[in-house]
């Protein structure tokens, strides 16, 4: 492993041990630390990195929790074989029906739920229509075959959430909206951008900070133009494909959609 001192790490709000964990993940993903390889000892890593044992140990603990390395008593720490997902990529959805369907085939992991808060959007993000007084704020991780394929921040109008709370707790949010006949939808909009993973997204998706991601903003309005659903969804770049036939209408293919 090449010399790497802590003052050469990217400036970040992340704790140093998380930055080190990102460096270690990149070495595993690039093959520099190949499957089955025995890692340098804790003391050797500390000397190489120029930081303390607690910091390095915490970074390695994060990799172990993610299943990237394993420790064998009396033998050392080894890079584990990585199980490849049964899909190579995910096509971003381009219809409301496909978005509702995506949620039916994804595993759900709740991160946070906050009740009755005002809509707080990023400074660069504007919205049209009528904004509700209060929203339920939810963070969710969605998985396919155990692989984290997206991390979402969702606001759903509080009055709607309170009426159908059980559905929103146990289903993908867009799926719950789409499968509730009483909820009339007047407009559903989507914007796709290319961005990079910040600290929070990197932590939830188990990817390095700065990794390429697809950032998707979705807005759903009731027929009276009230904003009932807003979401920001981050997908790891390595799984996202957007395929277009410029001469013929687009048709569904066999790849999973998101």
UniProtKB/TrEMBL annotation:
SUPFAM superfamilies on file: Chorismate lyase-like, Winged helix' DNA-binding domain
Domain HTH gntR-type: start-end pairs: 14-82
InterPro entries from the UniProt entry: Bact_HTH_transcr_reg, Chorismate_lyase_/UTRA_dom_sf, Tscrpt_reg_HTH_GntR, UTRA, WH-like_DNA-bd_sf, WH_DNA-bd_sf
Keywords associated with the record: DNA-binding, Transcription, Transcription regulation
GO biological process, one term: negative regulation of DNA-templated transcription
The protein, known as: GntR family transcriptional regulator
Molecular functions (GO terms): DNA binding; DNA-binding transcription factor activity
Domain of life: Bacteria
């Amino acid at each position: 492993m090449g010399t790497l001192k802590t003052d050469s790490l990217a400036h970040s709000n992340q704790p140093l041990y998380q930055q080190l964990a990102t460096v270690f993940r990149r070495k595993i993903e690039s093959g520099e630390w190949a499957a089955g390889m025995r890692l340098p000892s804790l003391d050797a890593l500390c000397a190489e990195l120029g930081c303390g044992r607690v910091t390095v140990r915490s970074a390695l603990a994060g990799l172990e929790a993610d299943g990237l390395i394993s420790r064998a008593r009396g033998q050392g720490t080894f890079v584990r074989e990585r199980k490849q997902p049964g899909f190579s990529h995910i096509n971003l959805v381009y219809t409301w029906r496909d978005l509702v369907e995506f949620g039916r085939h994804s595993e759900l992991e709740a991160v946070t739920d906050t009740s009755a808060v005002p809509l707080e959007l990023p400074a660069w993000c504007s919205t049209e229509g009528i904004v509700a007084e209060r929203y339920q704020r939810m963070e969710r991780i969605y998985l396919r075959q155990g692989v984290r394929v997206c991390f979402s921040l969702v606001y759903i109008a509080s009055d709607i959430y309170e009426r159908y709370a059980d559905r929103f707790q146990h289903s993908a949010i867009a799926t719950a909206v789409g499968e509730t006949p009483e909820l009339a939808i007047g407009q559903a909009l989507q914007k796709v951008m290319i961005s990079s993973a910040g600290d929070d997204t990197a932590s939830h998706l188990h990817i390095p900070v700065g990794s390429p991601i697809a950032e998707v903003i979705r807005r759903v309005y009731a027929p009276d133009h009230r904003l009932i659903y807003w979401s920001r969804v981050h997908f790891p770049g390595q799984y996202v494909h957007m395929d277009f036939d410029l001469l013929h209408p687009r048709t569904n293919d066999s790849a999973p959609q998101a």
